[in-house]
Amino acid sequence: MAHRRRVEYTPGWDCHGLPIELKALEKSQGSDLGPVEIRKSARNLASNTVLKQMESFRSYGVMGDWDRRWTTMDAAFEIRQLRLFQQMVKKGLIYRKFKPVYWSPSSGTALAEAELEYRDDHISHAAWIRFPITEEWRKLPQFESLQKDVPGQLYAIIWTTTPWTLPANRAIAIEDNLEYCIVRYGDDALLVAKSRLDTLVSKIDAEGVQILGTFEGSQLTSLKYINRLRGKDAPLQPIIHADFVSADSGSGLVHLAPGHGFDDYEACRKLGIPVAAPIDDQGKFTSDAFPDSPELLQSAPSVNEGGGRNVLDLLKPHGDVLRVERYQHKYPYDWRTKKPVVIRATEQWFADVGSIKQEALAALNDVRFIPESGRKRLESFVQGRSEWCISRQRAWGVPIPSLYDEKGSAVMNDEVVEHIISVIQERGTQAWWSDAPDDEAWIPSSLRGNGKYRRGTDTMDVWFDSGSSWTMMPGRADIYLEGSDQHRGWFQSSLLTRIAAGTQADNNFEKGAPFKQLITHGFTLDQAGKKMSKSLGNIIEPQQVMDGTLLPPIKRKKGNAAPQGQPAYDAMGPDALRLWAASSDYTHDVAIGVPVLSAIHTALIKYRTMVKMLLGSVHESARTTPLTATDHIAILQLQDTMQEVGKAFDNYEFYKGFAALNKWVTNDLSAFYLEALKDRLYCGDGGGVIEPLLTGLLRMLTPVTPLLVEEAWDHRPEWMKADSSSSHPFHQLYNDPVIEPGRLTRDLTALRRDIPVLMSVHGGVKSCLELARGDKVVGSSLQSSVSIRVSDARIQKVLESYADELESMFVVSSVDINTDLPSEPAWSYTREFEVSGIKAAVVALPPKHDKCPRCWRYVAPKEDTLCGRCEDVVANQHVVN
């Protein structure tokens, strides 16, 4: 906070993606829109939403260069994004592959990990299934001793939570070093891991099974089996080794469907086992799922809705379904539609993350994370990723600049991408969909005459859009701020695209992460601690906080009702919204509701009351009036608080700054200084340090409650408005002196050393007087004199050095230190306290003199007579008049 730095905030909006496209489709009311119409509708919706959100942000008191706002659907931004994509193509980081991805049947597109949410209450119908092993097993020497013991069929047993993937089964995995056994089951035999035999027996009610032989997994990889779902001419399928097979779950044998599982795919790819995924974009089985009678599987609405049951019904007549059970487990859902996804092999575009992973991780070394736990979270996501599926099967987005030949093979190289970008610069991305399919303007000259080419229809992952936003900055951003879910999303995509671009030999490019600091916040909860959601109806809109509709009606006197047609609520305004945000520990989930906002409202009223009091008490003459010890103490307390608040703000720990500010306002400013200053303001010279305290308070409030600060500045006294050297709090340097150093005449080092003693005694005096006030002996503290009883010479010396100011400091009529007490006072109260661990005491006694009718201090020589100070003031006023 010590240095002034100009902050340039140009607001930007992420406008592409599935949520807007789905809303655009909803508005079409069932009309069958093509890509061009979808894009027009989505752009219109996004444009209107940007304007509405912009007005909302401005109403919150957010300052920015709103006229220069940008969006990811701007033509200039789309070109920046395509240029970034082109750089990755040049480095060989972009490629197309047929492999499993998360697929959302409800959205009809591939999804990235960041677009998933996991539910722990998903119910699957898990099944124990047997696959017949071919009779060739009898010819293998390791099984020679079992021939006579197995008159029937040998089966491999698997367990799966997704029976709908069984038509895509292409192998069974075992672990070479696990121990397996073959057990007699009727005339047949079952192959299972020995560690899972008891579980299998209990599941299929097969008590009394006999172990015929045990084998290491490595002895089983020469076996072949048949998947009946592949039809009458089903080919033989292998049993293979896979490291991920566990002895602690299932049967110890794992059904592999390389088109529906990431681990399955990798295990099969190494051995050249083909990939199959016989479901379509809507999650329905294709005719390839069961070639003999496709209709038997295609009757299900989707694989997640009856598809698994249909598969099991095909296997039951063969006796291959040993058991079906309800199984609750964690499962991925589409975070937009809230419906389950599937893993499905499709042709998609990928970005190679593996080759830049270590550079990306190294770039995080000089990034500051708030909270620090965010570092491990982001690092773990980057470390666990090797590929990024960047293509989406939607219309609303930036097109992936690729051409396809007559065979459907993709053609993408630097020349193709450069040519496509040049056409987009001329015609815009909308033309990618609206131009005629045979428009050769999109085909580079080197390809013309070599067959027909068509434009692709895939769009880029919306995270690639937002991940390109760093291109709008000349260097690295000071701060990226978002929720904890963005470690999988925007934080990661920004880092990866930045590192990918940074591999280019560009001397003007600032290498490293796009952010210097990364701040992660939690999510908003209702007052009961539940996550806000539309389905629960517990969402609170910012406008509700500002207009006061969340708080109970304010108490109004009879005849002072709210104007007709207006709600009888106490509107809180944007300052309340900002103060709630500043007071919350955003590193965790944050609750909001009537109790929380009531406390915020109280704090805001306290600030407002305090500012009004200071504005009403400040006098121009105070600028030249000598300062007392109490004034010096108030300045030191202010400086300490400003330093603490400034440090908290510098560290983005606004809630700590809020707590420090409240403590100062309550304990130091209100209960100590202003209480001690009242006599001087009302009846003395009107001096003090009100103006510096006001300056410091406004500086601390400026980033949090700017409207209150602006209003206070508008209502400052005319003599302050006439002072051209007095700048607006928004323009002041936070650490500039609040008071001219030359006005501080005390030894501040010695005073700072004495403050703990004075504050301890002050607290003792107040506590003692509360005893008298509780017995209704005194009302005002001026109706007393106090005697300080201390045994420590150092403490006594400190108090004696301030003896002439203790009365005003403690707001009593007189103060004695270790003097003899009156023998029979009308009343007395004693309160013990400690000063730096040393015991002391305060004795409250009746005042020694009479009440001055002007200042109300009990220091007058007799009743209804002015005290000496007031006598002089009144006499001087007569002279002036």
TrEMBL record:
Q: Which SUPFAM superfamilies match?
A: Anticodon-binding domain of a subclass of class I aminoacyl-tRNA synthetases, Nucleotidylyl transferase, ValRS/IleRS/LeuRS editing domain
Keyword ATP-binding attached? yes
EC number(s): the record gives 6.1.1.5
- Where is each Aminoacyl-tRNA synthetase class Ia domain found? 6-592
Main enzyme class: ligase
**Domain Methionyl/Valyl/Leucyl/Isoleucyl-tRNA synthetase anticodon-binding as annotated: residue spans:** 634-720
> Which one of the record's GO molecular function terms can you name?
tRNA binding
Q: Which CDD domains match?
A: Anticodon_Ia_Ile_BEm
GO BP: any one term:
mitochondrial translation
Q: Which UniProt keywords apply?
A: Aminoacyl-tRNA synthetase, ATP-binding, Ligase, Nucleotide-binding, Protein biosynthesis
Recorded GO cellular component terms are: mitochondrion
Task: Supply the Gene3D superfamilies for this chain.
Answer: 1.10.730.20, HUPs, Ile-tRNA synthetase CP2 domain-like, Valyl/Leucyl/Isoleucyl-tRNA synthetase, editing domain
Q: Give the domain of life.
A: Eukaryota
Q: Which PANTHER family match?
A: ISOLEUCINE--TRNA LIGASE, MITOCHONDRIAL, SOLEUCYL-TRNA SYNTHETASE
Which NCBIfam families does the annotation name?
A: ileS
Protein name in the entry: isoleucine--tRNA ligase
Per the UniProt entry, what species is this protein from, by scientific name? Answer: Daldinia eschscholtzii
